[in-house]
C-alpha cells in the first residue's frame, strides 16, 4: 500500500523546491574546569583544629583528615579535594575563615587542576 505524502511549498514559490527538515544542532558542552583546594602548613595552628576543620568543611573522616594534615605538615602543602571553581573557592574561604575566627593563620588556597 503506497501512501501519497504532500510536502508543503513555500508561499509564492512556484518551482519544485521542497522543504527540508531542520537538523537540531547541539552545542558541544565542555566540562567545567576543576580546581584543587590546598591546605598550606603553618607552625601555629593546632593539629586538632586543622583536623576538625577538614572534617567539618570537607566531610572527611577522622583518619582522612589526619592523613591530609600530616601530609601538609611534612610537605608544606597538601591537596585536600578537587571541585569546580566556585565550590573550591567557597570551601577554601570558609575553611580559612574558620581559622581566622579562632585567631589561627590556617590557610587554604585553590589552584587549577592540570
From TrEMBL:
Q: Does the keyword Protease apply?
A: yes
Residue ranges of domain Adaptor protein ClpS core in the record? 31-109
Superkingdom of source: Bacteria
> Among its keywords, does the record have Hydrolase?
yes
Annotated keywords:
Hydrolase, Protease
Q: Which InterPro entries match?
A: ClpS, ClpS_core, Ribosomal_bL12_C/ClpS-like
Which Pfam families does the entry link to?
ClpS
What quaternary arrangement does the UniProt entry report? Binds to the N-terminal domain of the chaperone ClpA.
Family according to the record: Belongs to the ClpS family.
NCBIfam families assigned to the protein according to its UniProt record, in alphabetical order: PRK13019.1-1 (NF009561), PRK13019.1-4 (NF009564)
Q: What does this protein do?
A: Involved in the modulation of the specificity of the ClpAP-mediated ATP-dependent protein degradation.
Return the protein name.
Answer: ATP-dependent Clp protease adapter protein ClpS
Q: Which organism is it from?
A: Oryzicola mucosus
Amino acid at each position: 500500500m503506497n501512501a501519497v505524502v504532500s510536502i508543503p511549498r513555500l508561499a509564492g514559490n512556484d518551482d519544485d523546491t521542497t522543504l527540508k527538515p531542520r537538523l537540531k544542532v547541539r552545542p558541544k558542552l565542555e566540562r567545567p574546569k576543576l580546581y584543587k583546594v590546598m591546605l598550606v602548613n603553618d607552625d601555629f595552628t593546632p593539629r586538632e583544629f586543622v583536623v576538625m576543620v577538614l572534617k567539618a568543611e570537607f566531610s572527611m573522616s577522622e583518619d582522612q583528615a589526619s592523613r591530609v594534615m600530616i601530609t601538609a605538615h611534612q610537605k608544606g602543602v597538601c591537596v585536600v579535594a578537587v571541585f569546580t571553581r566556585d565550590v573550591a573557592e567557597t570551601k577554601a574561604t570558609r575553611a580559612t575563615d574558620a581559622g581566622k575566627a579562632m585567631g589561627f593563620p590556617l590557610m587554604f588556597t585553590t589552584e587549577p587542576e592540570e
